[in-house]
């Protein structure tokens, strides 16, 4: 199955998360809004000065060199004042523009001394200069953030500016299952025939970094009865029941892939062979109505399948429309002489070239390696059936854009 078709199917099956939570705005950064945010007030709430300077009526400006006394001084936080015709006011950045004034002249363009100001003429000033009008950033009752948008530090600041201290966010609990008697946790001493589990920690951190902090993680042995007991516990305990299940390994067609059989007894799974490299075996379905993603066992395949298939689907469940960032087309410094039958996601790094950035490929693209993904800063996409030569352009996704979109 082509990657594009797999993603299309996943997005079509995505259902809105029912698990939502009202939390303090300050705790919501990086998560996804479950409902739109509307402004409680105009921002700014009043016309205010954009610079330190002099407030006046544009019509009162005369020939250059007019000198007038400044009887009024307005600082940020002062109550609104009124300016009579023919008067000027000393004003500071953020201060409310006095009623009657329609222009602020920057102090560098005036001569201010001893309570008086020498003004420029109309030919160098425009009516309305240096005034931030009320409602310039947001109008009361206007939607400032839509459902599904991710909360960045900037958007947290915007929501605070419109007077909202709490937001409703998507709060799915995601269960990560790793399987295999060969795996052991990294804190243990190495044992013969064992390998350390990297997929569990990697997936947990990928989820957290991409905006899903509520993660449960458990390793399951290759024992159908123990797998069944663990799954029953998660599905029947309201305190642990997940909203999404993601597994690595154990859902293929091998004799030791017991997880698949246990899961199918609780729902329906669809086993896909994807035209993707790294990766190929991918399982998607429902377990008691919960979406289930079965990822390959190799760690780089887990990384690629999560970024290109699972994360976009989770974002669609949150209400996002644009679930993948736009790739950048960049020239490459390497060649691939044999056209592949699967769409390949190369671990690459952007480096300065003669005229633009160019992509450099890590020399080892094994799906079992994670050191190449640490070296890289993104993925270059080689379409099915294409050879690549130095100077050719490939679509490039940075890890930062994929995780923070």
Model description:
With 405 residues, this protein is α+β, with helices and mostly antiparallel strands. The strands form seven sheets. It has a six-stranded mixed sheet, with no helix packed on it. Strands 16-13-17-21-20-18 form a six-stranded mixed sheet, with helices on both faces. It has helices at residues 3-13, 153-161, 199-209, 224-236, 258-264, 299-318, 371-375, 399-404, and strands spanning 20-24, 37-38, 48-49, 53-56, 67-74, 88-91, 103-106, 111-113, 116-118, 131-132, 143-145, 166-170, 174-179, 183-184, 195-196, 215-220, 244-248, 267-273, 276-277, 281-287, 290-295, 328-331, 343-352, 357-361, 378-382, 393-398. It folds into four domains: 3-19 and 172-318, MoaB/Mog-like domain (Molybdenum Cofactor Biosythetic Enzyme, Chain A), CATH 3.40.980; 23-42 and 137-171, Molybdopterin biosynthesis moea protein, domain 2, CATH 3.90.105; 48-132, Molybdopterin biosynthesis moea protein, domain 3 (Molybdopterin biosynthesis moeA protein, domain 3), CATH 2.170.190; 328-404, MoeA, C-terminal, domain IV (Beta-clip). Helix content is 20%, strand content 29%. Belongs to the MoeA family. Pfam families: MoCF_biosynth, MoeA_C, MoeA_N. Pathway: Cofactor biosynthesis; molybdopterin biosynthesis.
Q: Strand pairing plus helix content: what structural class?
A: alpha+beta
Strand content: 25-35%
Could you say which overall geometry the principal axes of the C-alpha atoms support?
elongated
- Give average pLDDT, whole number: 93
Tell me the name of the CATH homologous superfamily of the largest domain: MoaB/Mog-like domain
Secondary structure tally, helices: 8
Helical content stands at 10-25%
Give a count of the beta strands, DSSP E runs of length 2 or more: 26
The gyration radius over C-alpha positions equals: 30 Å
Return the CATH architecture of the largest domain. 3-Layer(aba) Sandwich
């Amino acid at each position: 199955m082509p990657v594009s078709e797999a993603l299309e199917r996943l997005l079509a099956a995505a259902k809105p998360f029912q698990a939502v939570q009202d939390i303090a705005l300050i705790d919501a950064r990086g998560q996804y809004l479950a409902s739109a945010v509307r402004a409680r007030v105009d921002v700014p709430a009043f016309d205010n000065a954009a610079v330190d300077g002099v407030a006046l009526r544009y019509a009162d400006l005369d020939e250059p060199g007019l000198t007038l006394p400044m009887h009024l001084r307005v600082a940020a936080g002062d109550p609104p004042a009124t300016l009579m015709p023919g008067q000027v006011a000393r004003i500071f950045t953020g201060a409310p523009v006095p009623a009657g004034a329609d222009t602020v002249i920057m102090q560098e363009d005036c001569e201010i001394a001893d309570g008086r100001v020498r003004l420029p003429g109309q030919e160098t000033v425009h009516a309305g200069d240096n005034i931030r009008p009320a409602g310039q950033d947001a109008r009361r009752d206007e939607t400032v953030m839509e459902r599904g948008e991710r909360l960045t530090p900037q958007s947290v600041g915007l929501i605070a500016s419109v007077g909202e201290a709490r937001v409703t966010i998507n709060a799915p609990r995601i269960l990560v299952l790793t399987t295999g008697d060969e795996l052991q946790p990294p804190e243990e001493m190495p044992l013969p025939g064992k390998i350390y589990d990297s997929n569990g920690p990697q997936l947990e951190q990928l989820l957290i970094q991409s905006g899903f902090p509520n993660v449960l993680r458990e390793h399951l042995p290759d024992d159908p009865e123990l797998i069944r007991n663990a799954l029953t516990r998660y599905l029947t305990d309201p305190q642990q029941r997940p909203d999404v299940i993601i597994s690595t390994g154990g859902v293929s067609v091998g004799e030791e892939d017991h997880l698949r059989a246990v899961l199918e007894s609780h729902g329906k799974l669809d086993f896909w062979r994807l035209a993707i490299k790294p990766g190929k075996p991918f399982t998607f379905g429902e377990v008691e109505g919960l979406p289930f993603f079965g990822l390959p066992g190799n760690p780089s395949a887990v990384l690629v399948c999560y970024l290109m298939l699972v994360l976009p689907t989770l974002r669609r469940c949150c209400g996002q429309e644009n679930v993948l960032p736009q790739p950048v087309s960049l020239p490459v410094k390497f060649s691939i002489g044999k056209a592949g039958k699967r769409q390949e996601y190369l671990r690459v790094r952007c480096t300065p070239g003669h005229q633009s950035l160019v992509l450099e490929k890590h020399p080892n693209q094994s799906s079992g390696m994670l050191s190449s993904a640490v070296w890289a800063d993104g993925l270059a996409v080689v379409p099915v059936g294409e050879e690549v030569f130095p100077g050719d352009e490939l679509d490039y996704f940075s890890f930062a854009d994929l995780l923070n979109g």
